[in-house]
Design goal:
By secondary structure, the protein is α/β, with parallel strands linked by helices. It contains 15 helices and 14 strands.
Length: 451
């Protein structure tokens, strides 16, 4: 009777949220269930027929989990038998809400596979409830970067929690790890089950100079400074310790590509391929799936407005922002729009923007800034520019002989319109927003709230 009431209340919340267009009901049903039944995640997970897949990391969770689901469906899995938190609600309450959404009123679920992207700080809470899990469990660890320090703390704190709970896992479980991230590779030492490393072997993609946003650059065996044969971005690359035998593990999964742009998406692709191989999906089916994959919301999502193209690249921390910015600049844009918010999903502290290498933006590219912290971003961009080409204007075209690269626009809708007016029909307006700003952009462009 207790479970029936929990499920009923949860389903009513989901229905009302969607009916009133105030969200997707992706968190409150799970929050209520957790309050009355703390082990509710373990209760639902125990009913999965075949496999539970958890995807964790600072960047790439949404894209990787959607890739995994796409590969499964393309290879013949019934989509009705897959549970996935596709709304992006990746705290424990979000995962439970996904179960409630797909359960009967008596709390029964009928699924072969559950695929969950999991918030970095929540992974240890989820693993704690899976120590006696008896079905196939796959844990994907993508990367660790500084992100929302007010919530998470330093990456070492998160990695330490992951390590403690990985050591407790038993049964049929596998862990897929990014070997090019020293912190993630070291976590392989905590895995008693099967482990598979993925990585990129492309010396031509090495950065010529390092980025400011670097984290795990010291050996976790001996604390010596790591050295690199080459860096792809941040602290990700072919690393080794000059003081002990620690080095980047040889990847078992490498060389796969999807339809997505950017080196960081190659890592997401490799992680998804690793899961597919663990689930015994044929290579030809994996390749077909990767070629026709469509990106998740806000991750290289495209819109066409009045014959002009808009492309959104979510950018929520220094490492991710640098990676997205490099990919955007490879497309030789005329205008980019940066949107900075400071809500809970973004992190209240926006000082991280000073670790983003905005200096890579050519002077020929027009930069529009908007969002709730528009003037913080404007100041950061102004400092990246040489005095001769720095300037600020409000929704007006450049005037005079002096080049004006920076446009400040407090109103987001006007900022998007200003960007569209500044490009031709053959061009693309690239928008790089933080998370809550991305939801606002999508709503303006014809979408609706996701959470």
């Amino acid at each position: 009777m207790k479970m029936f009431l929990i499920i009923l209340i949860g389903k009513v919340i989901i229905y009302a949220s969607r009916l009133l267009n105030i969200g997707n009901g992706g968190t409150w049903p799970g929050e209520i269930a957790l309050h009355f039944y703390p082990k509710v995640f373990s209760y639902f997970a125990g009913q999965i027929n075949k496999s539970l897949i958890l995807v964790a990391g600072t960047n790439g969770k949404t894209t990787t989990s959607k890739l995994i689901k796409h590969i499964l469906i393309q290879s013949g899995t019934d989509p009705k038998k897959i549970i996935h938190n596709e709304s992006g609600a990746n705290l424990v309450n979000g995962l439970i809400s996904s179960f409630i959404q797909n359960s009967s009123l008596t709390g029964k679920i009928y699924c072969d596979c559950a695929i969950f992207e999991v918030d970095e700080a929540s992974l240890s809470q989820v693993l704690e409830q899976l120590t006696n899990f008896r079905k196939k469990l796959v844990v994907v660890l993508l990367n660790l970067f500084r992100d929302q320090l007010d919530r998470y703390g330093e990456v070492d704190t998160i990695a330490g929690k992951w390590s403690r709970y990985l050591q407790k896992l038993q049964g049929d479980f596998s862990v897929v790890l990014n070997g090019d991230d020293p912190q993630i590779a070291y976590l392989g030492n905590s895995v008693l089950g099967k482990k598979y490393f993925f990585g990129i072997n492309k010396p031509e993609k090495f950065l010529k100079t390092g980025e400011h946003a670097t984290d795990s650059t010291y050996c976790l065996n001996c604390s010596h400074k790591l050295q690199y044969k080459g860096i792809y971005f941040s602290h990700i690359g072919i690393w080794f310790c000059p003081n002990c035998p620690a080095e980047r593990p040889t990847p078992q999964i490498s060389g796969w590509r999807s339809s997505l742009l950017g080196l960081y998406n190659e890592y997401n692709t490799l992680a998804a391929v690793g899961v597919a191989k663990i689930l015994a999906i044929l290579d030809k089916e994996i390749k077909r799936s990767l070629n026709n994959f469509k990106p998740a919301f806000g991750r290289q999502e495209e819109y066409n407005i009045a014959g002009k193209k808009i492309k959104i690249f979510l950018a929520k921390n220094p490492a991710g922002f640098n990676a997205s910015l490099r990919t955007v600049l490879e497309n030789k844009p005329k205008t980019i729009l940066l949107v900075l918010n400071d809500r809970i999903p973004d992190g209240r502290d926006v000082s991280w923007i000073w670790d983003v290498d905005f200096e890579m933006i050519p002077k020929s590219v027009k930069v529009i800034v908007s969002g709730e912290r528009v003037y913080d971003m404007a100041l950061r961009i102004k400092y990246k520019m040489k005095p001769a080409c720095a300037g600020r204007q409000s929704n007006n075209p450049p005037t005079g002989g002096q080049m004006k690269q920076l446009i400040v626009c407090e109103d987001l809708k006007k900022a998007i319109n200003t960007g569209l007016k500044s490009i031709n029909k053959s061009d693309t307006l690239f928008i790089l927003p933080t998370y809550s700003a991305m939801l606002e952009v999508r709503k303006i462009l014809g979408g609706r709230k996701i959470l």
